[in-house]
């Protein structure tokens, strides 16, 4: 009974993470009215990294050369994904940004196949085809080939997240997860600050109260707390269930964008959204079946 309660609590915690990440799409969209993308990322990762280091200060002594290298590579991929995602919001809607980001869930099996040599299942291929069909509907602007620049940047974001998740799938088992999280966020902070100084001289001297609150939301909740809860919760939740719950961020982000930002969806975009979500769920179901077979074969 105690184990079952821990599982239920963990799944509820992961749903909270999905809600936090979904809300982050709206927060980013609103924040860019008063702060540039590069400095927003710098503030976000600095707050998140500082919080993680303060909480797990004793873990710093466990950092070695291999975990440092793995964390740096993963951190570079994370920063690249967030960079494309944040800049993309300047050219597309928060709802489309949320849905197109979810393409990483379908891309992961193929990226992992390239990196680790594990062939994706048939249903995963079907999910990929559905996903790309949905993406095409979301990106269509009324003329053939008329794709939004922000949509394309968001797809690049999804690809980088897919590479990062696949990379961690290989190396996370070899290192302490908290140590990797610390190095990842620290790497993102350093890269963000350097990139901001080099390419954006619009250093924010003061921020409006609502933007400050947004930065704290993104840093403390979407970055530090979300990664911490995900790490702890997955000790008691099967990976297939955890990823299925977390992928709900795209749906939550879309719904919140329509409610809070009054974004409008055309019937074609709603159809594309539905196909994208269905492809994500189909991909996760496949992973669950594969995991179940692996457990039964042991």
Query: Taking all residues together, what is the mean pLDDT?
Result: 80
Radius of gyration: 19 Å
The helix/strand order is HHHHHHHHHHHH
Low-pLDDT stretches are 290-298
Give the overall silhouette.
Answer: globular
Major beta sheet summary: none
Question: Could you tell me the strand content as a percent range?
Answer: under 5%
Number of helices: 12
Report the helical percentage. Answer: over 70%
Query: What's the N-to-C terminus distance?
Result: 25 Å
Number of strands: 0
Pairing-aware structural class of the strands and helices? mainly alpha
Short description:
The protein has 298 residues and is mostly helical.
Question: How would you describe the overall organization of this protein?
Answer:
- This protein is an all-alpha fold and 298 residues long.
- Helices cover 79% and strands 0% of the residues.
- The chain has 12 helices and no strands.
- The model is unreliable at 290-298 (pLDDT under 50).
Q: Any descriptors?
A:
12 helices, mainly alpha, globular, disordered C terminus, about 300 residues
